[in-house]
Write the structure tokens for this entry.
Amino acid sequence: MRTSGSREHQVVVVGGGFGGLQAVSNLRRAPVEITLLDRRNFHLFQPLTYQVATGALSPGEIAYPLRAIFKRDRNVRVLLAEVADIDLDARELHLRSVAAVPAPERLAYDTLIVAGGSHYSYFGHEDWRMHAAEVKSLESALAVRSRLLAAFEAAETEPNAEARETWLTFVVVGAGPTGVEMAGQIAELARDTLRRDFRAIDPRGARILLVEAADRVLTSFPPSLSAKAERSLQRLGVTVLTGRTVIGIDAAGVMLESRERGEERIASRAVVWAAGVTASGLAGRLAELTGTERDPAGRVTVESDLTLPGHPEVFAIGDMVRVRDVDGEPVVLPGVAPVAMQQGRYAAGVVRARLRGREHGVFNYRDKGNLATIGRAAAVADIKGLRLSGFLAWATWLIVHLWYLIGFQNRLLVLIRWSFSFVTHGRGARLITGASTNSEQR
Ligand SMILES: Cc1cc2nc3c(=O)[nH]c(=O)nc-3n(C[C@H](O)[C@H](O)[C@H](O)COP(=O)(O)OP(=O)(O)OC[C@H]3O[C@@H](n4cnc5c(N)ncnc54)[C@H](O)[C@@H]3O)c2cc1C
């Protein structure tokens, strides 16, 4: 393994998300100098951003400063900057500054671990983004929160019945775990939390529509659990529209198409996007530089040890990759945190093994199961063939999410918040923030 002169081996990790964090954590005791680089100064616990979007949690409770996570590790340096380009031959990253914070132009590495994640794609319709916000980043979750709460405010002062109904129609696109969770939370917000807050409208009359192109919700779960999840959603007052493809979104609503019903328009001012994701642009750049294949979702194909073909010093992990199995066939693993975390740990293990001059086996994903929550005491879980629903699945979901949340203080705060909300049905963070709310919607 290359090290220049007498200096320590330089490992650069791009991305302080689930994959990057595990890579750094598992290297901090190794004889290496690590630079963790991210365009954000915090780790975001994405599985709970939808709770920020519906006022159940505050941003600070699901984000944690990267510097604070590694403050005791003298060999870990955190750098706020964005990767603009990668020079694989020179083994250098080209950086761009973020938030006007000066950043070095170039950063050299001996080993590079890229964990740039993914972002929501609008199936080639970027113009939909401004009308259908998503909940991947903290900023977009806050924009969704403002949009949802502002819709109730607008309905309260709207004299026209039809326009009022439009304000009180909420559409969630995509019935994967995030869409299901989002629809369930909007329903609870309307039926429970806001029930007594207004004078002219009854928030319980709000329509919450969950639109899905497939023939069932939660397609990554067995059909029996999808059916249970759908029944739970219906109990909460969510209307599930399966077999419908979104063909248009504008400021006044959504256009759907289905085989049975043809085209139908739904008037709504509050549309949330929880459909397809596409890999980080870094995946595309790495594929271009190495002539490696990408799949339709933009994931770069890495070898079975998570390195780029021809570049054993460069690992790519997490949402932005698909991995070749031992037979050389590319395999798409689920876009979930455990995959990224296991890959981060694995990449760190390979680096440690190489430094000791040892061999390392190929990456194998251990699937620990699938969880999705729908609402209060309602969830589904598929854990190694054990199928749970209702309270037991919800309790499992709760424990797992608290366990993986970064920072003891955050765990405690979220536990207190959830316990308080469970008893009172309240949501303390129902704030409309940002100057854009009105002009964006009208
Ligand atoms: C709303 C939502 C809910 C989810 N719920 C669940 C769930 O319940 N359970 C579950 O297991 N998974 C869930 N996931 C999926 C899970 O969050 C991802 O699979 C996981 O975050 C992937 O980890 P990663 O390290 O690949 O990328 P990320 O965690 O997304 O991290 C990528 C990091 O790279 C940084 N970055 C990107 N590009 C650059 C650049 N050019 N320069 C510098 N930094 C850069 C980003 O700022 C970010 O910090 C959810 C995802 C979303 C969006």
Q: What stands out?
A: Residues 290 and 310 are 8 Å apart (CA to CA). Residues 14-20, 37-40, 46-47, 49-50, 82-83, 115-117, 135-136, 177-178, 280, 282, 318-319, 335-338, 340 surround flavin-adenine dinucleotide (CB under 6 Å).
